[in-house]
Amino acid sequence: MCDSGSVVMQRLDYQGSDGVSLVAQLVLPAGDGPFPGVLVAHEWWGNTDYPRSRARQLAAQGYAALTVDLYGQGRATASPDEARVWMLDALAQPQRLRMRFEAGLALLRHQPQISAQQIAAIGYCFGGRVVLDMARQGLDLVGVVSFHGLLGTDTPAVPDAVTAAILVAHGDADELVTESDVARFEVEMQQAGVQYSLKRYPGAPHAYSNPASPNYRKAADQRAWADLTEFLQRLFD
């Protein structure tokens, strides 16, 4: 465990129900809590420092944040080809993916500093698709936020199934999400009676929020983080 200014960071090794070793980082605000919790789901690159940096930002705002390991063994890569293989493998096994997400959720919920009934989830790119799907499947989350996440799904929302409020932070120039994808998502949410909000950032491409990406757009990133901050404040007020 280490103290980095006003937050405390701790690596947690845990195990999914499929027996695979998983690696998370728990980041806590200063103080005793209990704190609302936020799961952070990684991009297709895996368990890089990027989701950990977002967890540190969340902790600085007073939330207990945990990075969930969706690939297993804390894997991360800088290779787009390897990332694509890992992501497609994860999406091809939705039950395993859900079990790994639920393992992270249970880990966060059982931390003594956590307000167990106040847990949300955020995700980036692949992780954005994952948190939306977890909400669609009715997991016990008060809210989810998808940043430049894929909006398609094999498990569309149905009436009375989704309990989480949803925020989608979408770049209008995202080359992986078409206007038809956005329209279908909105129809899906409306027909299922889901409480959702879609924020659009003009000119922002895919991966606009990651400073390590050539697609990074500072203005869109700052607006999206402000939208997240407001969303979480409403959730946990």
TrEMBL record:
SUPFAM superfamilies: alpha/beta-Hydrolases (SSF53474). InterPro entries: AB_hydrolase_fold, Dienelactn_hydro, FrsA_esterase. Residues 24-234 form the Dienelactone hydrolase domain. Gene3D superfamilies: alpha/beta hydrolase. Keywords: Hydrolase. It comes from the Bacteria. One of its GO terms (molecular function) is hydrolase activity. This is Dienelactone hydrolase family protein. It comes from Ectopseudomonas toyotomiensis.
